[in-house]
Amino acid sequence: MKLYPLQGPIAEADATLVIDAKARNTNETSGPINFRLPGRVRCEGTWSSVAPKEVSRQRGLSLTLRDTGGRLGRDTKTVAGVNNGEIYAVCNDGTRVQGNFISGSGTTSGTGQATDTNGNVYKLLF
Q: Which pTM value belongs to this model?
């Protein structure tokens, strides 16, 4: 992930700064995230994404030799679409960073926005 400062003290000090954030477990729906703000301020937290699910139920009588006695069951599968996600991190100087993003189902790319408690606004891309 990359954080691009858009507004606030960090953007005013260096508009070209790009903050690299390392997100782990990117094949899952959540995981740890860590990065450093200017001044060697270390931040650690969590990212999480909600994947839409589709649930179907089966019930009834089956007269085939394979499934005599009927079928009962429930299937859950992930459906294609846009997933909503969030990041939250706490830094060693007390700064808190919180943001929201969207990503495509089955991808490790997305876009969003984050803010911190020091008045900075970031564009979030990955």
A: 0.76
